[in-house]
């Protein structure tokens, strides 16, 4: 569910956030904006995880342009 590249990207985003808080606190002065952004990130992550869990082994990051006979269209859960 969580691959190495995704973990690295998340680590860098956390690092960026803490650098901004430490060196440019005025960017975080309006905490309601930060909290709305955090809510959006958490919501997006929840949707992503629900999609991965719903699709199961059918989930892949590979973009397909042709239909393969062994692929199934998932129409339950988050894909409903």
TrEMBL record:
Its cofactor is Zn(2+). It is a multi-pass membrane protein. Its main location: endoplasmic reticulum. Its EC number is 2.1.1.100. The keyword Transcription does not apply. Divalent metal cations. Probably Zn(2+). InterPro entries: ICMT_MeTrfase. It catalyses: [protein]-C-terminal S-[(2E,6E)-farnesyl]-L-cysteine + S-adenosyl-L-methionine = [protein]-C-terminal S-[(2E,6E)-farnesyl]-L-cysteine methyl ester + S-adenosyl-L-homocysteine. It is an enzyme of class 2 (transferase). Gene3D superfamilies: 1.20.120.1630. It is found in: Endoplasmic reticulum membrane; Membrane. It comes from the Eukaryota. Pfam families: ICMT (PF04140). Keywords: Endoplasmic reticulum, Membrane, Methyltransferase, S-adenosyl-L-methionine, Transferase, Transmembrane, Transmembrane helix. Belongs to the class VI-like SAM-binding methyltransferase superfamily. Isoprenylcysteine carboxyl methyltransferase family. This is Protein-S-isoprenylcysteine O-methyltransferase. It comes from Platanthera guangdongensis.
